[in-house]
C-alpha cells in the first residue's frame, strides 16, 4: 500500500509542471471584439469582430453610421449567439480568477516586466499607472506563452503608456483580469496602443482624447469585455481576438515540463521492465527446483516474491497469506 502511495505522488509531481500552464478559454466569445451588459460608442471607432450584449434588455448604441465593425456584425440584443458568447466570457473571467497565482506585481508606478506562463496578482487592490512607464512582456522565445495579469479592484491606465513585447510575446496571449472597473484615460498624451484583452468584472471606459470624441484615443490589441457597461467615449480601434490560438488551446509546455514528462515515461518503462525480469527470474528458479514440473506455469500460479514462484494450492502458497 505504501509503495502505491509513493508511486501516486511521483506521478503527480512529474505531470504537474508539464500541464500547469495558465489557460484562458473564451470559447465563442473569442469571435467578439466588444461584449458587455450595455455597449456605447461615441467616436468613429472601428471594432474587429462581433459586437454584442448579454441579454434582451441590453442596449447597443453608436454604431452605423458613427462606429463601424469589420469581420463581424452588431448582433441584436437577445440573440442566442451573443447571449452564449457573454456567458462564455463570464465563465472565462470566473475561471481566470481561480487560477493559482505564480507571481506578483506592484502598483505599476514604475516600468515592469512580466514573464510568460505566469499568473500575476497585484499587491494592492486598485491599480493606477503613472504616465511614461513601459510594460515589458517576455515570452522566453515561446510564442505560445500566456500572460495573466489580475487586479482585485479597479485598473486605470493614465496617460502615455508603452508596451514592449519581446522574445516572441504575442498581444493576443495577454489577458487583463480586472476585478471591478477598467479605464484607459489618455488625456492630452496622444493615442496609445494597449496590448492584451481586457475582461472586467464591472465596467470598461475608454476616455476621449483631449481633442474630443472624434480624435483617436487609442488602439486596443485584443478584445474588450465588461459584465456591465462597455463604453468607448473616445474613438477607439479594437482589434479583437478572433482566431487567436491562446484563447482555445493549451500552451506548449515549457522545458521543465518536457523534462518532467520524460522522466515520468522513463520511470514507467523501468517499472514495467523490473516486474518482467522479476517474474522470469522467479520462474527459472522454480523450474530448477522442480525439474519434473510442467513446462508452463498455470494461470493459477503466482509469485510470492521477486525470486520464487509457488504453484497455487501448495502448502507454501496457503501459508504465504
Write the layout of secondary structure elements.
Layout (H helix, E strand, L loop, with lengths): L1 H14 L16 E5 L1 E4 L4 E3 L1 E4 L6 E2 L6 E3 L9 H19 L4 E3 L6 E4 L2 E5 L4 E2 L4 E6 L8 E5 L3 E4 L2 E6 L7 E5 L3 E4 L6 E4 L1 E4 L3 E3 L9 E6 L2 E3 L2 E4 L2 E4 L16 H35 L12 E4 L2 E3 L4 H5 L2
Parallel strand pairs: 1-4, 1-21, 2-5, 2-22, 3-6, 3-23, 7-9, 8-11, 9-12, 10-13, 11-14, 12-15, 13-16, 15-18, 16-19, 17-20, 18-21, 19-22, 20-23
Antiparallel strand pairs: 24-25
Helix pairs in contact: 1-3
What percent of residues adopt helix (DSSP H or I)?
10-25%
Q: What's the N-to-C terminus distance? A: 16 Å
**How many helical stretches?**
4
Strand order within the widest sheet?
4-1-21-18-15-12-9-7
Instruction: Please outline the major beta sheet.
Output: 8 strands, parallel
What fraction of the residues are assigned to beta strands by DSSP?
Answer: 25-35%
The chain-level mean pLDDT equals: 80
Spatial extent as radius of gyration: 29 Å
Unreliable residue stretches: 1-19, 243-261, 294-302, 314-321
By secondary-structure content and strand pairing, the structural class works out as alpha/beta
What is the β-strand count? 25
Order of helices and strands: HEEEEEEHEEEEEEEEEEEEEEEEEHEEH
Categorize the overall geometry: globular
Structure description:
This protein is of the alpha/beta class and 321 residues long. 23% of the residues lie in helices and 31% in strands. It has helices at residues 2-15, 80-98, 255-289, 315-319, and strands spanning 32-36, 38-41, 46-48, 50-53, 60-61, 68-70, 103-105, 112-115, 118-122, 127-128, 133-138, 147-151, 155-158, 161-166, 174-178, 182-185, 192-195, 197-200, 204-206, 216-221, 224-226, 229-232, 235-238, 302-305, 308-310. Strands 4-1-21-18-15-12-9-7 form an 8-stranded parallel beta sheet, with helices on one face. α1 packs antiparallel against α3 (255-289). The radius of gyration is 29 Å and the shape is globular. The protein starts with a helix and ends with a helix. The model is unreliable at 1-19, 243-261, 294-302 and 314-321 (pLDDT under 50).
Amino acid at each position: 500500500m505504501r509503495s502505491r502511495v509513493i508511486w501516486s505522488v511521483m506521478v503527480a509531481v512529474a505531470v504537474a509542471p508539464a500541464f500547469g500552464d495558465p489557460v484562458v478559454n473564451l470559447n465563442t466569445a473569442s469571435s467578439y471584439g466588444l461584449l458587455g451588459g450595455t455597449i456605447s460608442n461615441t467616436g468613429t471607432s472601428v471594432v474587429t469582430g462581433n459586437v454584442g450584449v448579454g441579454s434582451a434588455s441590453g442596449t447597443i448604441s453608436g454604431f452605423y453610421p458613427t462606429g463601424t465593425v469589420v469581420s463581424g456584425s452588431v448582433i441584436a440584443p437577445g440573440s442566442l449567439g451573443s447571449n452564449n458568447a457573454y456567458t462564455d466570457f463570464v465563465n472565462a473571467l470566473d475561471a481566470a480568477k481561480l487560477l493559482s497565482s505564480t507571481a506578483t506585481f506592484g502598483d505599476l508606478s514604475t516600468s515592469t516586466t512580466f514573464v510568460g506562463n505566469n499568473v500575476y496578482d497585484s499587491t494592492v487592490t486598485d491599480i493606477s499607472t503613472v504616465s511614461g512607464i513601459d510594460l515589458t512582456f517576455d515570452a522566453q522565445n515561446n510564442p505560445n506563452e500566456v500572460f495573466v495579469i489580475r487586479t482585485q479592484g479597479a485598473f486605470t491606465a493614465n496617460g502615455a503608456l508603452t508596451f514592449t513585447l519581446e522574445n516572441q510575446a504575442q498581444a493576443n496571449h495577454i489577458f487583463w483580469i480586472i476585478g471591478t472597473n477598467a479605464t484607459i484615460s489618455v488625456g492630452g498624451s496622444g493615442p496609445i496602443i494597449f496590448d492584451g484583452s481586457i475582461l472586467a468584472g464591472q465596467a470598461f471606459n475608454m476616455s476621449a482624447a483631449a481633442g474630443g470624441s472624434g480624435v483617436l484615443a487609442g488602439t486596443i490589441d485584443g478584445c474588450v469585455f465588461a459584465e456591465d457597461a462597455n463604453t468607448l467615449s473616445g474613438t477607439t480601434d479594437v482589434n479583437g481576438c478572433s482566431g487567436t490560438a491562446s484563447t482555445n488551446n493549451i500552451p506548449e509546455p515549457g522545458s521543465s515540463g518536457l523534462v518532467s514528462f520524460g522522466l515520468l515515461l522513463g520511470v514507467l518503462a523501468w517499472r514495467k521492465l523490473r516486474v518482467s525480469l522479476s517474474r522470469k527470474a522467479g520462474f527459472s528458479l522454480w523450474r530448477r527446483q522442480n525439474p519434473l514440473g510442467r513446462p508452463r506455469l498455470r494461470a493459477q500460479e503466482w509469485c510470492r516474491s521477486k525470486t520464487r514462484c509457488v504453484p497455487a494450492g501448495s502448502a507454501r502458497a496457503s501459508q504465504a497469506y
